[in-house]
Design a protein that fits this description.
97 residues, mainly alpha, 2 helices, extended
Length: 97
């Protein structure tokens, strides 16, 4: 993502939408949770509307499938949840099972 919050190219020549991601210094925890839930709902809607997980993307930059994107999102979510778990363990000394 560009520094100004704009997404990458779409491959079709159209201008990508500008996305405002709140910075931590101007966001409350409730703002962050709300933002995450809104983004999750947008992803759910896109997945629900898809005809197939295996159709190729329309982007020229990195041809892929929706299946690859969903697996990547799952991996990233798990990775970051793991980072937060490690941080919590370092802060309070408790470990999970």
């Amino acid at each position: 993502m560009a520094a100004d919050g704009a997404g990458g190219g779409t491959g079709g020549g159209e201008t990508p939408p500008t996305l405002h991601v709140p910075r931590p210094d101007e966001s409350t925890p409730a703002d962050v949770v709300s933002f995450y839930r809104e983004e999750t709902a947008a992803v759910d809607a896109a997945v629900d509307a898809a005809e197939s997980f295996d159709l190729p993307s329309r982007g020229e930059m990195r041809p892929t499938t929706l299946r690859w994107v969903v697996v990547h999102l799952l991996e990233e979510t798990a990775r970051h949840a793991g980072h937060m778990d490690i941080t919590r363990e370092l802060l309070d000394g408790r470990t999970g099972r």
